[in-house]
Amino acid sequence: MKKLIIAGFAIATLGLTSCSEDDAPTEQLANCTDGIQNGNETGVDCGGPCAPCDGGNVGGETPVDEDLSGLLTEDFTLTNDVIWEINGKFVVGNGATLTIEPGTIIKGAEGTGSLASALIVAQGGKIMAEGTAEEPIVFTSINDNIELGQKQGSNLDENDRGLWGGVLILGYAPSSFEGDSEVSQIEGIPADDDFGRYGGNDPEDNSGVFKYVSIRHGGALIGSGNEINGLTMGGVGNGTVIDHVEVVGNVDDSFEWFGGTVNSSNLVAFAGGDDGLDVDQAYSGTISNALVIQGAESDHALEIDGPEGTLEGAFVMQDVTIIGDPNAPSGEIADLRDGAMGAFNNIYVRGFNDVQDVEIDDDASAANYTNGSLSFSAWEIVLPEGVESVSDIFIDTTGSTDFSSDATEFATAIEQDQETVGADLSVFGWTFASFRGAF
User: Fold this and answer.
1) Cis peptide before 329 (omega within 30 of 0)
2) CA atoms within 13 Å, Cβ hemisphere of 406
3) In whole angstroms, what is the distance from residue 1 CA to residue 15 CA?
4) Mind listing the pLDDT tens digit for each residue in 227-247?
5) d(C-alpha 20, C-alpha 26), whole Å
6) pTM of the model
7) 303-326: b or e for each residue (b if 16 or more CB lie within 10 Å)?
8) Which helix (H) or strand (E) holds 384?
9) Interacting residues of 97 by C-beta distance below 8 A, sequence separation 6+
């Protein structure tokens, strides 16, 4: 996907209702003290328009949902005793921390263009979303009938896409931009809105923790041919934890890294409408133990673009299982283009048809393969019917390398369920994909 992530958005002050949807004026939220801003502790008198507070509720009543929108300027906690709703853009601003309790459910409202709902963690903002396997944090659509205490609803599946936006995390880590600028602006946000910027010179930048999180049914349209990714990481540093994250049924890419250095582990990309794992702008972290399960609308399981400026960075992708859908009309295993560089190690592939392949698509990527900055090792592939050799899977469209013939050195044809490489699937039992029996 291009850098167009969200379209024009006039940021409000803190548009976040904290007691019940009809009680406190949104602009007065900052008047509340510890009871609201630091964890909604039961029995703390917040003072101001939100008093009395009991677990963040007025009179001890449990609201059905709580609205989230606008710019968060102070620390705030999403508790797991209510269902939260994102209406429009909810931005965690510079200096603010959004904490999300295990088991919390956040639903995104419908809308396209500037009205698309999304959670954006801006540069200098932090998210502390630490779910568990027993109590994952779920981002989903307002149309999902999932209720408090549940891990999934019953009315939507992986083919329900584009019902809200997605999650974006933007940091200060190095990224490779055209013109060698240090910082870039996500397209569609005015240049004077700081929350749309990403990139910098701090590879150890820390945007928080995003762990045991499932993001479902997103990818709302924001412009012609442009949708929000499930999880977008722009210039995210390696001080950030991205671990045990699932994206289900997103219209666009499930995961996309725009530069940055963050390490990402234990990922599931399930039935996306575009790419599973997408790398751009000299991302240079490590992606490990990932599972990509293609659907009928999926494009590339892996889409790899190189740097846009002179800054180079090579990622490592290792211990990955890719399960294809032979009926996906544009489904492919991988596309390597625009000077792609990186290392692919311990990859297991099955379930594709005889025209779905791994392609080097341009001269710069071919040159990187020749010089070793684009490399492959320990691939195991269940050959599709009609394919006789792994050499038929690996294609250099430029015809300038020995990529196809070299494949016999780094890839092995095997029978299904005989793999010795790929992801450890036993850690994904908490996911929606597991509930759906997708692997």
Assistant:
1) no
2) 14
3) 30
4) 889 999 999 999 999 999 999
5) 11
6) 0.87
7) bbbbbbbebebbbebbbbbbbbbe
8) none
9) 75, 76, 125, 126, 127, 128, 208
Are 286 and 316 spatial neighbours (Cβ–Cβ below 8 Å)?
yes
For the chain, domain boundaries: 15-63, 64-430
Chain segment 353-368, per-residue pLDDT in tens: 999 999 999 999 999 9
DSSP one-letter string for 386-438: T---GGGTEEETT--S-HHHHHHHHEEE--TT--SSS--GGGGTTSHHHHTT-
DSSP element (H, E) containing 82: none
In sequence order, what are the residues at sequence separation of 6 or more whose Cβ sits closer than 8 angstroms to the Cβ of residue 130?
100, 102, 209, 211, 212
115 contacts 87 by C-beta, under 8 angstroms: no
**Structural tokens at position 117:** 């709902």
- Six-digit token pair at 18? 């904290």
Residue type, 332: E
| Cα→Cα distances 315→204, 235, 265, 339, Å | 15, 14, 13, 13
Cβ atoms 395, 365 nearer than 8 A? no
Q: Is the CB of residue 267 less than 8 Å from the CB of residue 246?
A: yes
Residue indicated by tokens 């990955």: 320
- Condensed to tens digits (0 to 9), the pLDDT of residues 292-319 reads 999 999 999 999 999 999 999 999 999 9
Residues contacting 421, CB < 8 A, separation 6+? 319, 346, 347, 348, 378, 379, 380
Q: State whether residue 35 is helix, strand or coil.
A: helix
Question: Apex CA 133: angle with CA 251 and CA 117, to 5°?
Answer: 30
Mean pLDDT computed over 253-281: 97
pLDDT confidence of residue 112: 84
Q: Which residues contact 329 (CB under 8 A, 6 or more apart)?
A: none
Whole-Å CA distances, 163 to 126, 170, 239? 26, 23, 32
The two beta strands, 394-396 and 53-54, are unpaired
- DSSP assignment string, 99-143: EE-TT-EEEEPP--GGG--EEEE-TT-EEEEE--SSS-EEEEETT
